[in-house]
Amino acid sequence: MDIKTTFYNTTDVILYEDTVNSIKELFITYDRYISYTFGHLRKYLDNFLLLNGWSEKIKIDEGSNMTVPAIKNKVGLSFQTGNAARFYSDMLKFQTLYIQNRLDSLIYIVPQNNLATHINTNTANYERVVKELDIFRNIINMPIVIIGITNKED
User: Fold this and answer.
1) Which of its termini does the chain have fewer beta carbons within 10 Å around, N or C?
2) Which CATH number fits the domain that encloses residue 98?
3) How confident is the model at residue 8 (pLDDT cuts 50, 70, 90)?
4) Is the pTM of the predicted complex or chain greater than 0.90?
């Protein structure tokens, strides 16, 4: 598995180093030992997160059913393999938590473009996320670590 990382709105790489490295190792280990399907990968990631102290889904507001996947020590985490429109929804939810001081930063995992094209058309992808976050830098101002994954073959 090939993994790329971009730091958005932060230069404090050391702050995220242990968490990002453990997530990278998770994907490398998964790629080494388990058949590659996103359904299995998502279950594997969810299990890893729970075993490592991450929360289950967190509600954005008590009056709504909107949730984010996981938070640990005020760091949010999301693994998005859906339509690119989901990226904007994710950013609004996490930015809301950031403004409410319930979140200090976000780790956002997406497939790189070459893998995203195998999933579906208009799938959220690393290259697009990095580019479009820059466009919305005055609106989405929380620190984000973007992790892009792809198959070795791609």
Assistant:
1) C
2) 3.40.91.20
3) confident
4) no
Amino acid at 96: T
Q: Are 27 and 3 in contact (CB under 8 A)?
A: yes
Distance (Å, whole) CA 13 – CA 16: 6
- CA 122, 107, 102, 10 dihedral sign is negative
User: What span, in angstroms and rounded, lies between the C-alpha atoms of 82 and 154?
Assistant: 19
Q: 95-121 b/e with 16+ CB inside 10 Å = b?
A: bbbbeeeebbbbbbbbbbebbbeeeee
Where does the pLDDT of residue 28 fall: very low under 50, low under 70, confident under 90, or very high at 90 and above?
confident
Please choose, from the candidates 44, 43, 3, 38, the residue with its C-alpha nearest in 3D space to the C-alpha of residue 118: 38
What is the span of the domain harbouring residue 52? 2-150
User: How many structural domains does the chain have?
Assistant: 1
